[in-house]
Amino acid sequence: MTDEVEQEVSTGSLPVWDQVERLAQEAHARARGHDEGVVADYIPVLAEADPSLFGVCVAEARGGPVHAVGDAAVEFSVQSISKAFVYALVCEEHGHEMVRDRVGVNNTGLSFNSVIAVELNDGHPMNPMVNAGALATTALVPGASSAERWEHVRTGLSRFAGRRLELDGVVYRSESATNTRNKAIARLLQSYGRIDLDPLEVVDVYTRQCALRVSARDLAVMGATLADGGVNPVTGERVVSGQVCRDTLAVLAATGMYERSGEWLFEIGLPAKSGVSGGIVAIAPGKGAIGTFSPRVDPAGNSVRGRLATAYLSRALGLNVFASSAQPSVQRGADASGRRA
Ligand code: GLU
């Protein structure tokens, strides 16, 4: 499974800059009238979010300015989207095999904070995008203390964003006061020998990573770094390796959109991650990424307007990774060796 092959890259390119700009505006205009969904409130402070906010941003993998529309600069807590980028940092540190074995890559089919999923799988966390797997992943972040591990996470996610990301202290305290379920999951993982550190310290670093403040623009740049083989297209800095990007995107395709991951892939065809505060990042390998923010989420936790805008852009920009059309230059009727009959 680890044999390396050259030239494993996504094909095609984005339309010209003006067209991407126009389509980003069109995506925002088409989705902004939708008021379905509700603002998440299980973390008390999230309920205060303004439901009218809506930002869309496309960042191109090849660098240059991003295409930002609406409230693309408004900051919100990254929540579960942090899981994707902490996973990438941990894969960079420990490698493909170790993280796959320890955390897993398969969908649970159950909700993101399920305890039963852990029990049904003999304590295996199953994948890094559910809370059990995210806690097991955060427990692998390098550092001699939880302060060092937190700094590694904050600095790493900031490198993906190309700017220093800050903790939202209000969100952190609100979640810390109410996250008894995550503490229970961490203790359960400890009971199965799946995390070696103090479970409550792991939950604390995880809660901080979820409370980092980002904008839709940040999400687009972070995603474009995964689309660009691990190099941030705005700063030019290498953040992770190309293999880590591939591993992370594969996991996002299978598990990034909660229990709707299959449906998302079927309709939109892009690896993506969402968070309950209303952010979504969707990544088109080799091309770029879409970051959206709008607080009303569907029953699975995915932003309604974000999904609509991303679905439109996936089609209009030709991003669906499963879509292909016959190549007009290829002559039909060639035999297996490629020779014409
Ligand atoms: N910090 C949240 C939790 O652990 C993240 C939820 C989410 O965005 O899915 O419950």
Number of helices: 13
Q: Order the strands across the largest sheet as they lie in space.
A: 3-2-8-7-6
Structural class: alpha+beta
Would you list the SSEs in sequence order as H and E? Answer: HEEEEHHHHHHHHEHHHEEEEH
CATH fold-level assignment: Beta-lactamase
CATH architecture: 3-Layer(aba) Sandwich
Strand content: 5-15%
The number of distinct β-strands equals 9
CATH C-level class:
Alpha Beta
| Percentage of residues in helical conformation | 40-55%
Which ions, cofactors or small ligands are bound in this entry?
A: glutamic acid
The gross shape turns out to be globular
- What characterizes the major β-sheet? 5 strands, antiparallel
Mean pLDDT: 92
Provide the number of structural domains: 1
Structure description:
By secondary structure, the protein is of the alpha+beta class. It has a single domain, classed as 3-Layer(aba) Sandwich (Beta-lactamase), CATH 3.40.710. Helix content is 42%, strand content 10%. The strands form three sheets. A five-stranded antiparallel β-sheet has the order 3-2-8-7-6, with helices on both faces. The chain has a two-stranded antiparallel ribbon with strand order 1-9. α5 crosses α8 and α5 packs across α9. The longest helix is centred in the middle third of the chain and has 16 residues. The radius of gyration is 20 Å and the shape is globular. The site of glutamic acid has 11 residues, from loops.
